[in-house]
Each structure stands twice: as C-alpha cells, then as structure tokens.
Specification:
The complex is a heterodimer of chains A (about 260) and B (about 300).
Chain A (H helix, E strand, L loop, with lengths): L1 H17 L2 H30 L13 H24 L1 H8 L3 H5 L5 H35 L5 H29 L2 H18 L3 H4 L6 H10 L4 H27 L6
Helix pairs in contact in A: 1-6, 2-3, 2-6, 3-6, 3-7, 3-10, 4-7, 6-7, 6-11, 7-8, 7-10, 7-11
Chain B lengths: L5 E12 L2 E12 L3 E5 L6 H8 L7 E6 L2 E2 L9 E4 L11 H11 L4 H14 L15 H13 L5 E5 L7 H14 L4 E5 L3 H7 L2 E6 L2 E4 L2 H10 L2 E5 L5 H13 L3 E5 L2 E5 L5 H12 L7 E4 L4 H4 L1
Parallel strand pairs in B: 3-8, 3-9, 6-7, 7-8
Antiparallel strand pairs in B: 1-2, 1-4, 4-5, 9-10, 11-13, 11-14, 12-13
Helix pairs in contact in B: 2-3, 3-4
The chains are: A mainly alpha (about 260), B alpha/beta (about 300).
C-alpha cells in the first residue's frame, strides 16, 4: 500500500514540475537566498548611488545577524505568501478540475491521498528551502565568514520550515473543505493575519505558531534560547497533525457530486 | 445474504437531495459477465445511482455489495472501475503516463506494466497515440482512453455513465464493439440515452422511474425498440385525404399507424415501410411529397 502513496507523491512532483509550480517556488527561494546577504551587504552603497549629487550617506557596515534578519523576513513574507498560493491547489485543483475522480476510482483510500499530497508538498518546500539556505550560507561565508554556528542556522531554519508545514496542512484542509483555490488562499491568508493580530498580546504570542517566524531571528541574535521556543514548536506540530486528521475526516465525509 | 452469481447487488437504496426523493428503494442485481443498461428520463437519478455504487454519494438507506463486499460511502471498491460521461484526466500526462499511473495504483507488477498498457491501448485503438499529451486528445480519444484505463486490474464490474455521449456513429460503433469484447472478462453497467445502444449491447435493461428501479420486461423492451424505429410523416392542412389514403395503404400492409393532427406516425420495427412510403409518394400519390418525412428520435426519454 506504500506503493500507492509513492505513486501519488511521484504524480504530484511531476505535476509540480510540468505546471511550473516548483519552478516558481524555487525561483523565489533562490532569489531570497541571493538577495538577503547581498542586499544587506551592499544596501548602503546602493543607496549612495541613488542619491543625487552633493548628497552623502554614512552607512555602517552591516552585520551577519542583519543578513539573517533580512533572510527570515523575506522567507516569512515573500516566501510564505508564494508558498500559500502555490500549495493552495494541492487539493482544491483536484475538486475544481474534477480530477479527484481519477484518484478515487482506483480504489485508493482517501486518507492515503491526503497524506501523499502532504508529503509531496513538504518535499517541494524542503527542496526549495534547503537551496535557499545553501545559497544564503555561501554568501554569508563570503561576506562575514559564517560567524553564526551551524546548529543555530539549522534550528532557526527548522522552526520556520515547521511553520511552512503548518501552512501546507492548512491549505490541504481548506482545499478539501472548500474545493476552490480562491477560498483556500483567502482563508489561509485570513488565518495568518488573525494570528498576527492575536500575537500583539505577549502572553498569547509565545504559544502561537506564527511566533516561530520571529523566534528564528531571536535565536540567531541570542535573545532567545531553544527552550523559549519549544512551546510554539510543539503547538505548531500538533496543529499540523490535527489539520491532517481533520482533512482526512472532511474528505471521507465529502460527497463527490460531479 | 448475497448471491454468488451476482457481481453487483443493490438493495433498498434510497437517496434524498434537498428533501426531494431522487432514489426510492432501488433494488436490482447484475449477473457476472453481463451487460446491463440503465435507462430513464433526464434527471431520473441514473448518475446519482452510479455515484452511490462508487461510494461518492451517501445513501440515506440501503445496501450495495460488489462481489459480496459491502460498498461504504467514502471508500471506493477496487473491484469497480468507473468512467463518467465526460472523462477527466491529468492533461499534462501522455496516454502512456496516465495508464502507467493507473496501473501502479491498481498494483500491477512493475515488470508487466508495459505489456498491460500496450494491450489495452491497442484494444481501444490508441497505441499509436500513447506518447501524445492527453490535453491534445479529441473527445472520442478521451472516451477510448477512459475505457482503456477501466480495464486495468481486471475489475469485477465497470460502470459507464453515458459512454457514447458526444461520439459520432463511427465512434459509437467502435465503443460498442470494444464493450462486447470486454464482456468476456467483466460485467458492465451502463447508462445511455440511445435505444440503439441498448438494443445492440444489453443483456438486461433496468428502468429508473420516479426513483424506483424495475427490470424492463421483454415485451416492454421489444416495444421500446420497436418505437425507436418510428417514421413521422407531416402533411399540410389541406392534405387530410392524402394522409388517410396512405394510412389505409400502410395498415393493409400490416403497419401500426397513429394520427395526430397533421402528422401520421408509423412503427417501422423491421425497416420495411420507409421504402414503401417513398415509393407511394413517387409513383402512386397525386401529392408527390408531403411536408416532411423523418425517422423519429431514438432517445429513450422520448419513448418511455
């Protein structure tokens, strides 16, 4: 039965390539990987070049931590928004285009379909994210000699990746429930905005999964330790698993009329 | 208790949609290696019934078994294959890739996949198009690919929802021949609007009326097929005498006729009267041609 799941995962990855989903996601993450360190390093000089004659700007040397800040900011904003849009069709497209029948009529269980799509989406995100991190790390090595330790690099990125998995789980659930990409994207963005608004309250903020997108910077700046982030990480993982469970339930209860 | 001779059994199945009873205590069974047609007017619930058998829609009441195994809502039996009226595929795949995808899901051994795909694509006449993207297929090619993918995994029963829709007569004839061949290894349940398809293919016919299913008795079937070969002759208002003369002549020849205003209807089950009618107008009648002569619709909805 694992063969069924492997077949669906393979199909999703091929579809992602042929429909340019992976291409778009990779292009954005590569751009972030390049521009975060380069932009941080040369921002002052770029601004000086843009100033009219007679004007001078004094810019201090940017630090490696600032490059990390820029990287995580770009990932959590541009990267996540693009990922929300790109992954919104994982389930929604199958309902909109009625191709869900192609899977269901082959005797594949609905739970395996959900899990396979989640794994495929996670693999795509992992591949793009690792590429971005490798490029970023290379340039931070060139400009600042990689003073941030590997363990810090790994953990800070891992918690952001975990948030990406939560987004993926959310998109799969919303896509199954609503059956359209527009409703999926809109709802996902709304839920993220809601989290951000709720995180204004500091007591609640440390438990919200969205705090992972700022904790990653605090870890690099050494303003927070790993133990300060554990609650949000665990809650995020539990919510991701819960989203998959309720996606399977919603799918099993969904009538396929067309 | 299920009967081992039946590949599909439906018992007391009911389904409401927004307080309207679409399926009402439907019960029927399909024998192994048989082709059964299901007919009914538009909106009678044929697609709803098929989708309940597939586990796509939840029945309010009743039981469905395939090969003795109960079909539950939310899970589709691997023993059933299904083709909808408008077959949908992943258009970015080639025919070969899609068939390979289906074969892998159906658990076909890796070493045998290529042969299985070639065999079934060849059976439906798509072997030469195997490397063509499905997005570029015509409607007829998509129907044929839909049949080919149903054959993978040797299902106990294949359900076709309007398999002949939007096919030209040549395409329909090909699909009919394919279905006759596959009957040797599986059973088929198909819905169709065309009486001629039922006549050529089906061992039994189930009629879906007011949500209930009834096996169509032999004489009603024969009547249905007979009525499907009906000729309508339209006359002008001042041609009533000519109409009466023709009616008398045809009745003397043994034809069943009926008048309705300016139209004369003739049942032509054995295709003998149309020629006589044309001969009459060209050689005997003072009226060389009526307003129109036409063979009536062969759609089931018009006849049941």
């Amino acid at each position: 039965m694992l063969r069924n799941m492997a077949t669906i995962i393979k199909k999703e990855l091929i579809e992602s390539i042929r429909k340019y989903r992976l291409f778009i996601l990779m292009a954005v993450f590569i751009f972030i990987g390049f521009m975060s360190p380069i932009g941080t390093k040369y921002l002052g000089e770029i601004m000086s070049m843009l100033l009219p004659e007679g004007y001078e700007i004094k810019v201090r040397q940017a630090s490696e931590v600032e490059a990390y800040f820029q990287f995580f900011k770009n990932i959590s904003q541009l990267g996540m928004v693009v990922f929300i849009v790109v992954s919104s069709g994982l389930m929604a497209d199958e309902f909109e285009k009625k191709t869900i029948v192609c899977l269901l009529t082959k005797g594949v269980s609905r739970s395996k379909i959900i899990i396979s799509k989640f794994i495929a989406g996670a693999l795509e995100l992992l591949f793009c994210y690792i590429t971005a991190v490798i490029i970023f790390r290379y340039y931070t090595g060139v400009f600042w000699s990689n003073q941030v330790e590997i363990a810090t690099l790994l953990y800070s990125n891992l918690i952001v990746f975990e948030y990406g998995l939560l987004i993926l789980g959310l998109n799969i659930f919303l896509g199954t429930k609503f059956g359209t990409k527009l409703a999926t994207v809109t709802s996902c963005i709304f839920i993220n905005i809601l989290q951000i608004l709720m995180s204004i309250h500091p007591t609640i903020a440390k438990y919200l999964p969205v705090s992972l997108l700022s904790n990653c910077v605090y870890i690099v700046e050494q303003k927070k330790t790993v133990s300060d982030t554990v609650a949000a990480v665990v809650i995020s993982m539990l919510i991701t698993i819960l989203l998959l469970v309720i996606s399977i339930k919603a799918f099993k209860e969904k009538e396929i009329e067309q | 208790m299920t009967n081992a001779n039946y590949v599909l059994e439906v018992k007391n199945l009911s389904k409401n949609f927004k307080e309207k009873k679409v399926i009402d205590n439907a019960s029927f069974a399909i024998n192994r290696n048989s082709i059964v047609g299901i007919i009914g007017k538009n909106g009678a619930g044929k697609t709803t019934l098929m989708r309940m058998i597939m586990g796509f829609l939840k029945a309010d009441k009743g039981e469905i078994t395939v090969d003795g195994e109960t079909v539950s809502f939310g899970e589709t039996s691997g023993k059933i294959a299904f083709m909808s009226d408008v077959p949908v595929f992943y258009d970015y795949m080639t025919a070969y890739e899609y068939m390979k995808f289906v074969a892998e899901l159906k658990g076909i051994e890796k070493t045998k996949i290529s042969d299985v795909i070639s065999k079934y694509l060849d059976a439906v006449g798509l072997l030469e198009s195997k490397d063509k993207k499905i997005g570029g297929f015509s409607r007829g090619m998509r129907q044929r690919l839909g049949i080919a993918q149903c054959l993978i995994g040797n299902p106990s029963i294949i359900i076709f929802d309007e398999p002949m829709s939007a096919l030209d007569p040549g395409g329909r004839a090909e699909v009919i021949e394919i279905m006759k061949r596959i009957k040797e290894r599986t059973s088929i349940l198909l819905s169709t609007h065309l009486v001629s398809d039922i006549e050529k293919l089906c061992d039994d016919v189930i009629i879906l009326e007011n949500g209930e299913t009834k096996k169509m008795e032999k004489d009603r079937r024969e009547n249905l097929f007979g009525k499907s070969k009906m000729i309508e002759i339209s006359f002008d208002f001042q041609q009533e005498d000519e109409m009466n003369l023709l009616e008398e002549k045809l009745k003397n020849m043994g034809a069943e006729c009926k008048k309705n205003g300016n139209e004369l209807y003739v049942i032509d089950s054995n295709n003998i009267f149309l020629k006589e009618i044309y001969t009459y107008f060209s050689k005997e009648s003072s009226l060389h041609y009526p307003v129109s002569i036409r063979s009536l619709s062969t759609n089931v909805e018009d006849l049941i």
